Predict the structure of 7-cyano-7-deazaguanine synthase.
Amino acid sequence: MLKDEKAVVVFSGGQDSTTCLFWAKERFAEVQTVTFDYGQRHKLEIECAAQIAKEQGVKQTVLDMSLLNQLAPNALTRSDIEIAEGEGMPTTFVEGRNLLFLSFAAVLAKGIGAKHLITGVCETDFSGYPDCRDSFIKSLNVTLNLAMDYPFVIHTPLMWLDKSETWELADQMNALEYVRDHTLTCYNGIKGDGCGECPACKLRKAGLDKYLQRRNRMTEGGRLV
Ligand code: ZN
């Protein structure tokens, strides 16, 4: 428990970062969020993040990162690029995104006296994004500390969890229903259970079904087995 310390959560309003927000709120005295506006296809994503921050009583700073789209056009920001996953990087990949986001988050965090940065990156379900890997996060942590002469600690509570375990973590914090109903993961901009068709919805649903089946098995007969 680090109840006297401040933390900043990199926050998109999706399942992963909302689970991280609950995780941070259990551990730190003060939690703020930072959301990056990089011209996402769906402005609803930013609105959704703002709504969650408000409901959870945490401050949200929205930073304009529209330059990212200028540098790296991709399917999340450009309606003329199809979302496709196949050979090579998915078209949703944004080159260097976590490097940039975490660096800006660190500048903001130091400014408010927060050492702790929380991000929902995950190596388990990762689609080949190099800046979701644990080795990258550890390397960046050292770099940020040197760059700003400040003892940042980057926390990645989801790094080794699969989607079903991320749902389990939310459930352990009594936040499963909230995360299920209030977050936006769907590439088609539909909140909660989403469109059911896009890769993000499929991954999210497969994880939820797997976890709920496991939970049912564990609580059969009203006891943990
Ligand atoms: Zn969807």
